[in-house]
Amino acid sequence: MATGAIRIGLNAKRARTAWLFLAPSLLVLFAVALWPLGRTFLFSFTDAFLTEPDIYAYIGLENYFTLFEDALWWQSVRNTLYFTVVSVSIETALGLAIALLLNAHMSGRGFMRAVILIPWSIPVVVSARMWQWMLHDQFGILNHVLKLMGVIDHGIAWTANPDLVMPVIIAVDVWITTPFMVLLILAGLQMLPKSIYEAASIDGVSEWRQFTALTLPLLAPSIAVAVLFRLLDALRMFDLSFVLSSNSDDTKTVSIYAREVLVNFQDMGVGSAASAAIFLMIAVVTAIYVTVFRLNRKLLGV
Predict the structure, then answer these.
(1) Which of 18, 75, 182, 239 could serve as a FRET partner for 255 with CA atoms 20 to 30 Å apart?
(2) CA–CA distance from 118 to each of 15, 93, 114, 131, 173 (Å)?
(3) What's the rounded mean pLDDT across residues 255-266?
(4) Which stretches are transmembrane (predicted)?
(5) pTM assigned to the model
(6) Cα–Cα dist 253/269, whole Å
(7) For residue 164, how many other CB atoms are within 10 A of its CB?
């Protein structure tokens, strides 16, 4: 009994010490994240304007009704989801393929690993401006090359054409973010035990069968983490679309919509409601993704 009491007291002391060490981090988290988030939800129930944020009255869910009745909001939601699904899918496939290539025993793979990170290391705004100039209908290098090849006879306004601007934004995002996927998936590949592949080779298992039966199942957690990070990033995408297509409704994301209402129209209530809706949308998508992944892992017995 005495030993059990001592153990319980020791565990309680360790728990108090752990919370003591965590307290500064929790205070910083509260100051920079939870407090602004709480204020955003608070203002979403008011009629506050950015010009006089201290003068407001509570109006209940009226801002949310206004938001959900706006067709432009739903178009922004569709644009965001379309961008997220297409870009993350392409980046995952390319990231896996390039990671497998870089993980193979080949000369110069160290150099390739360094070079492939360059697009991801460049700030998004800088990359967007760079691509904006390369895609320019009069001075862009892409149109110049296509003219020399005889593919086109006049410059194409890639970022001004409503049918082309979203694919262009997705292509630029793939160029920027695929190295991130490569980095995470490659780290997972390097942690896989070599012995199982040696045993499979001795048993005469083909390389394709090794990939589908061994590599993919074992690599699933790394891919899941990489996809989750990209989902969170893609759902709140702002800068790339804003720089390449400015205020076009065809590429307006939910983040651009919230910024437009809050800054351009000075409507702090509806802008806060849009920001709160974005937070909830990302939380729901993340929860569904994590739940589905866990269920799949249980069904597969991994």
Answers:
(1) 182
(2) 44, 19, 7, 15, 14
(3) 92
(4) 17-37, 81-102, 114-134, 164-189, 210-232, 270-292
(5) 0.85
(6) 19
(7) 16
For residue 180, give Cα distances in angstroms to 76, 78, 107, 282, 289: 26, 25, 22, 20, 20
- Following CA atoms 21, 27, 29, 34 in sequence, which dihedral angle do they give, to the nearest 10 degrees? 140
Report which of 14, 251, 238 is spatially closest to residue 125, judged by C-alpha positions: 238
The CATH number of the domain covering residues in 44-300: 1.10.3720.10
Contacts 24+ apart (CB under 8 A), 263-267: 263/50, 266/49, 266/50, 266/51, 267/49, 267/50
Distances (CA, A) of 268 to 42, 50, 55, 225: 11, 5, 11, 35
105: enclosing H helix or E strand: none
How far is it, in rounded angstroms, from Cα 205 to Cα 270?
Answer: 59
Residues 6+ apart with CB under 8 A from 80: 234, 235, 237, 253, 254, 255
CA 243/CA 255 separation, integer angstroms:
13
Using one digit for the tens of pLDDT, what is the confidence trace for 16-34? 888 888 888 888 877 777 8
What burial letters (b/e) apply to 256-285, b meaning 16+ CB within 10 Å?
Answer: bbbbbbbeeeebbbbbbbbbbbbeebbeeb
Please give the angle made by the CA atoms of 204, 207 and 213, to the nearest 5 degrees: 90
- 92 residue type, one letter: T
Alpha carbon distance 239, 252 (integer Å): 11
Q: What is the Cα–Cα distance from 246 to 122, expressed in whole angstroms? A: 20
CA distance 58 to 79: 31
Whether the predicted pLDDT of 74 surpasses 90: yes
Query: Is residue 235 within 8 Å of 285, Cβ to Cβ?
Result: yes
Domain range summary for the chain, segments of one domain joined by +: 44-300
**Mean pLDDT value across residues 12-18:** 80
